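Before drawing any conclusions, I needed to go through one protein's amino acid sequence and its backbone structure tokens, quoted below without any editing.
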Amino acid sequence: MSQLLERMTSVLWLALASYILTLSSTEQQGYRNSTNTGSYEKDLDCGAPGTPEAQLCFDPCQNYTLLNEPFRSTENTEDIQGCDSDKHGWYRFVGDGGVRMPEDCVPTFRCQTSAPLWLNGTHPGLGEGIVNRTACAHWSGNCCLWKTEVLVKACPGPYYVYRLEGTPQCSLRYCTDPATAEDKCDRTCRPEEECRLVSGTWGCFCRQDLNVSDVHSLQPQLDCGDTEIKVSLDKCLLGSLGFGDEVHAYLRDGNWNCSSLRQSEEENWISVTNPTQAGACGNILERNQTHAIYINTLSLVNDFIIRDTILSINFQCAYPLDMKVSLQMALQPIVSSLNITVDGEGEFTVRMALFQDQDYTSPYEGTAVMLSVESMLYVGTILERGDTSRFNLVLKNCYATPTEDKTDPVKYFIIRNSCPNQRDSTISVEENGVSAESRFSVQMFKFAGNYDLVFLHCEVSLCDFIKEECQPSCSRSQLRSEGVAIDPARVLDLGPITRKAYLYALSHEMFTTV
């Protein structure tokens, strides 16, 4: 009697546990209790726990455990002794490895196990209910050396659920058919690729039947960036043309280490980059009235020892002439750089340079600038490194001194508190606080008096145009009343700028002395 009571208690406990888990599962599937008291009402007579009638209350299509384990794929050949002896209950296979069991004998050492289990029979159709099938394990040349019974049901969706009761031995594991995988690849494969399972993972890999013989089919992609030029080639097409995995690239100068070769296994592309700079990696620079053009040749070989076919690709990038491009083109521009750190935003780089023309496309080069008294000097500043999409560059104070000391008490202000000196009619501020560039021009030696050497200094700041108004608002009263506080840590310096008459007099004096 006590044993019977103990057995009934065990059955009731299991029934209660099954009831709670079932309720939780159905709520996840979108079902709800009929009341808020925890009761679950049905219009069926479920019968006593453990009886066939009780199964009517339990729909495995709504009560199962998900197995999202791609390693179960029959294409997985990893040598791992996996075992499913702990699998008891209703299961549904999902994911990249496949969503149903294979119906044909599976070779040994697949599915991350020794003896793979497959379904010896066909899957039921929708509406056939729960059917009984035999799962066979392949080992020692026998496709069905071990057997176990499996219940299978086709569910609306459609999908299948399986009632598993462990395995007869270890190492045995239930396999999945990769041909039934859902959403196999995360992206749409290109025409040169196919969606395939490799090492247990689905991805877009080069087509195995790809056959390309025309080199013009390569169609390289060219990216003309601000700081680098990138040439990208389809690795699948290269492979079809006879280039192996170890592809080596060099540019016009023949330096193997000049360019940067990048390989993207996921996208099946290889890319070669080189700096946007005259002479770098053999870059040839040509210039017309509107553009700067960088020309180079990319060569690809299978080995450092050049004995195979060499593939050469000529390419060029044309950049509209502006301040930034002009500085990149110049071999020795007269330029000053400053790094500015903004809390929470990182480090920014600002450059200031001297230009000969009002288009700011001809920077002065060398070590010094020589100007006549009547000459105009064009000064450009640019924010080059940092989030230029959010910050504008503002010239706060720009001034000239007779010495290179930025704190020299003798100062002539060109821009004061972000506004131009209105007493000097030669000053023109073309741009300030409205973008990542600021520009102004001035007749430098108009104000220099008896000084033959002057140095230029500009205090800069970064303005977050999302949070504040960045373009200066200037009035005569502000210019007269406000004082000036200069932060030396944010000052760019250029010079010396020399008056030509002074150089002429100096050279004449040296000539007569000799």
